[in-house]
Amino acid sequence: MIHGNISGLKAGQIQALERIQRRRIPVDQVISVELARYLTERAFDLRRQVGVIIDRQGEIQHVIVGDDREIVIPDLSGYGLGRGGLRGLRCIHTHLKGEPLSQDDLTDLALLRLDLMVALAVGQDGLPGRVDYAHLLPPVTGGETVEVESVPSIHDLDLDFAAFTRALEGELERKVDDTIDLSDGRERAILISVSLAPRQETEDSLDELAELARTADVVVLDRVVQRPRQLNPKYLMGEGKVKEVIIRALQQRATVLIFDQDLSPVQVRSISAITEIKVIDRSQLILDIFARRAHTLDGKVQVELAQLKYIMPRLIGRGTAMSRLMGGIGGRGPGETKLEIDRRRIRERIARLEKQLANLARGRLQRRQRRIRAEVPIISIVGYTNAGKSTLLNALTQSKVFTEDLLFATLDTSTRRLRFPMEREVIITDTVGFIRKLPKSLLGAFKATLEELEDADLLLHVVDLSNPRFEDHIQAVERILGELELDRIPRLLVFNKTDQVPPEEVAPLCRRFDAVPVSALDRRTFDGLLAELQRRFWPDDD
Ligand SMILES: Nc1nc2c(ncn2[C@@H]2O[C@H](COP(=O)(O)OP(=O)(O)OP(=O)(O)O)[C@@H](O)[C@H]2O)c(=O)[nH]1
Ligand SMILES: [Mg+2]
Fold first, then answer.
1. In what side-by-side order are the strands of the sheet with 89-95?
2. Whose CA is nearest to atom 3 of ligand 1?
3. Pocket test for ligand 1, best of 391, 392, 466 (most atoms within 8 A of CB)
4. What is the CATH code for 181-371?
5. Looking at ligand 1, which residue's alpha carbon is closest to its atom 2?
6. What's the CA-to-centroid distance between 454 and ligand 2, angstroms?
7. Domain Hflx-type G spans what residues (predicted)?
């Protein structure tokens, strides 16, 4: 097939182009003198650039016709990248005015990870003139990423191509092996923040994104912070910058770009059109973590619903772009379910899940009514993710709720009884962790689970006091409670992980915030908390 601009060409001219596809280049040559000459003659005849994409076996994979200034290379993502991160394809094209390799040529070389980018100057007579060529270099910090060379004529191009690609590939692979382990099956990410917010805020948010990535079992290779004067509706950052970031990501052999800002469906699609590296945003990462951690049927249904609703508008159509959005991280369904990838099927699945969710909600309602009828006070533990909510619930009730030093260990509320002296008891429930920018779509999906909070007589707001950003966390939780209209319920602030805080700082902080200190790891620290609960619920008991 011939790609590009063939409008206005005569049948004979098209046939002449089609004949290019039957040519074959010896594996040790960049291009044969005959083919070079054939290409420049065609370009001279058409007054348009003509190009070919050749594989390592010397077969012509694509013939491309451009205008007098450029050709547009077709999608090559189907070819995949070899061990050294090269595509195994080279691009050879004509430059009508003998101009040197353009910036776009060099960007294409790096973005597409070609073996070589070659420009053949078209002489006055249509014969090939000077040859400019460029190849990638192993990444060095701050250095050039491509090397450009030039020979006066095609006859001077005595590069042993097979040996050249072997050497280059070996060098690229060695360079990467020093720093990352390619046999490690985990995803490798570049974290990207494009923000107009103050620097510290951006950095904090990126720290949290890195933490989320770790929780999702992703290796973070690098971070990129962009502070543009204005946000680009198509790429979030500028087009040149996004290409630069992708080129660097390719060099570092990243498999996923994770944006700290939520990307619009348009942005996901435009960036995905430049590279086959997967593009996801913070919400998708959180959804991914939720998907791995949902344990109950209720939780699984809600997460899958939220994922499908999030991904649906970002789907491009059938084919590669879709599998790029759906594969691996960001496209992991809860439990064993692989997310379905057909729009119509997604819609059907959403309808089915919503129905299922409604049924589950009825069961939940009955449980709640039974609990309320029992007239036992209900305490709900809320707090930022990783604050130690589940650990505290376990320690208070000596039960075993899944805890882990990862974000979002708990996705489902779990309920336990806590006995006090004098035959008193309360029901105490654990909830999903809150987070600063909890995606809107998720808040909705999790409302059902958080509905139980409405029945609580007291919210235990657990805070990780050892986290330097604990005040932000308190605020974030308060804000979400406000959004859920739960701020009318009495609250008790519990400062946890006090074992990690200098002892002399704990008491002043507790006074300032009117909080009770605990270390969920140490039951001996619970006296103050238990006394406060007793005082609130049964002030008349001794
Ligand atoms: N040093 C210390 N670590 C604690 C304390 N309480 C909890 N942790 C640790 O903090 C981590 C998170 O605890 P979890 O109980 O899973 O936190 P969570 O708030 O339930 O987290 P999510 O359910 O993910 O929102 C675990 O590694 C706990 O062992 C504490 O008092 N001191
Ligand atoms: Mg938990």
1. 2-4, 60-65, 50-55, 89-95, 116-122, 128-136, 146-151
2. 497
3. 391
4. 3.40.50.11060
5. 497
6. 19
7. 377-541
Q: How far is the CA of 389 from the centre of ligand 1 (A)?
A: 6
User: In what helix (H) or strand (E) does residue 321 lie, and over which residues does it extend?
Assistant: helix 320-326
Sequence-ordered list of residues with C-beta below 8 angstroms from that of 133, at least 6 positions apart, any chain: 30, 101, 116, 117, 118, 119, 148, 149, 150, 157
Which atom of ligand 1 is nearest to 518's Cα? 31
Query: 384: CA distance to ligand 1 center in Å?
Result: 10
Q: Is the CB of residue 20 less than 8 Å from the CB of residue 53? A: no
The yes-or-no answer to whether 181-371 and 376-537 have a common fold is yes
Tens digit of pLDDT at every position of the chain (542 positions): 799 988 999 999 999 999 999 999 999 999 999 999 999 999 999 999 999 999 999 999 999 999 999 999 998 988 988 888 899 999 999 999 999 999 999 999 999 999 999 999 999 899 999 999 999 988 776 666 889 999 999 999 989 999 999 999 998 888 777 777 777 888 999 999 999 999 999 998 899 899 889 878 899 999 999 998 889 999 999 999 999 999 999 988 899 999 999 899 899 989 988 888 999 999 889 888 777 766 667 778 888 888 888 888 877 544 444 444 455 666 666 654 555 456 777 888 889 999 998 888 887 777 777 767 777 788 899 999 889 998 999 888 876 555 655 555 555 556 677 777 667 778 888 877 776 666 666 776 566 567 778 888 999 999 999 998 899 899 989 988 888 888 899 999 999 999 999 999 999 999 999 999 999 999 899 999 999 998 998 887 66
Interhelix angle for 282-293 vs 199-215, to 10°? Answer: 30
Residues in contact with ligand 1 by the CB-under-6-Å rule are 383, 385-391, 403-405, 407-410, 433, 496-497, 499-500, 519-521
- In three-state secondary structure terms, 97 is coil
Domain boundary assignment for the chain: 2-179, 181-371, 376-537
| pTM of the complete model | 0.76
| CATH code linked to domain 376-537 | 3.40.50.300
